[in-house]
Write a structure and sequence with these properties.
0% strand; mainly alpha; 6 helices
């Protein structure tokens, strides 16, 4: 009975030590995560300082649902500010379009996980048939998004390349080209 009690006590002490160590690890991990979140919130605040209020709402949504994508967007916008000194309107558009891409997958896929098919699925939602879009404005929209995504994914897969022109096209963007316009000009003879 005594040996059994002693064993039980050792087991309970061993278990309590294990629990104690697990709690320390959880506390340390929790503290590290809190630091990462606070650091990201600080970056977001500096990025959206002069943006419209809805941009904060977009970041709030993606921060809760996909921390990794929020961090990637943040880092990309900061890199664009540092490399090209982008205007506030350009910053707003890039944030909005990248958010839309993440939301298309319900914020469940990281940008790093996206495949060529995923990006094409998103881009194909933009296309409209000729009877709905006789001026083919959706082709212009497609081309604008394609350019934005190409630049973004080149940066994402080659962030340490200082020359943006030397960044390689990642597999997820290879073969995704701009669509040719059917009209020579978007202006009609009546516009002249």
């Amino acid at each position: 009975m005594l040996a059994q009690n002693a064993d039980n006590q050792q087991i309970s002490i061993s278990n309590s030590n294990q629990l104690s160590n697990d709690n320390k690890e959880t506390t340390v991990n929790h503290t590290i995560n809190e630091l990462h979140i606070e650091d990201l919130k600080r970056k977001i605040k500096s990025i959206i300082q002069y943006q419209k209020p809805y941009i904060l709402k977009l970041f709030s949504e993606i921060l809760v649902k996909n921390f990794e994508n929020a961090k990637i967007i943040c880092d990309y916008i900061i890199a664009e500010q540092n490399e090209f000194n982008i205007k506030e309107s350009t910053k707003e558009d890039k944030i909005k379009r990248l958010f839309q891409l993440s939301r298309f997958f319900n914020h469940t896929k990281s940008f790093v996980e996206l495949t060529k098919e995923d990006i094409l699925d998103f881009l194909n939602t933009i296309r409209k048939p000729s009877h709905i879009d006789p001026n083919h404005k959706s082709i212009g929209t497609w081309n604008g998004r394609q350019m934005l995504f190409l630049k973004f994914f080149k940066w994402l897969y080659n962030p340490n390349e200082p020359d943006p022109k030397k960044r390689e096209t990642p597999e997820c963007m290879k073969g995704i080209k701009q669509l040719p316009r059917r009209e020579i000009s978007s202006y009609k003879p009546d516009d002249m």
